[in-house]
Amino acid sequence: MKRLLICIIPICAIMASVTPVLAQKDFLTEDEIEKVREAQAPNDRLKLYAIFAKQRLDQLQRLLEKEKKGRSLSARELLEDYSKIIDAIDTVSDDALKRGADITEGTVAVATSEKRFLAQLQKIEDRNLPDVDLYNVALKEAIASTSDSMDLATEDAAARGAKLSAEDKKAKEEAEKTLAAEDSKGKPPEESKTADAKPADDKPKRKPPTLLKPGEQLPQ
Length: 220
Description:
Layout: H1 2-23, H2 30-38, H3 42-65, H4 71-98, H5 104-127, H6 136-153, H7 157-186
Helix pairs in contact: 3-4, 3-5, 4-6, 4-7, 5-6
């Protein structure tokens, strides 16, 4: 029993150290993250993210060509990473439009790519593979994310930028109101000056000090 406990303790310690690392898994590789850092212009970032999204779908396509045990987990992870990349595309576009940047070049590249992505995803869905139930949720989310992103790309850039700025302004104002309300809760209420407060004349009068002993009277 002691030997069993000795074996279990190191395993638990290892799992405790590994779990946070797994939880922090990024949807981009280290090399991709570095490339994103280097691409400062929003148009360059949009085109770069479109390349990453294509790579994920190409990997998924190759994976699903062969029946392999455990492929459903890899398929789900690829689809989840793909959806996060599409979300990143929308975030870059929103930030750029709020700043009034011209992202026509990047938007055109993204819209063209996403049209192909959507067709590719729908073909995978239509195949109805035997293990599709194990990654079907991620597949449907990827299709929805792509469709929504395509809709955003077709919106008028100026109108979309104005809408985003207005939403940001409103959110900021609401946040400031919430903070002000929270601050006021912590402050003591001001002393109320009510009408029923006793006037100064109604206060009990203080007796003047005396040096007489109890029962002793002043001489007449």
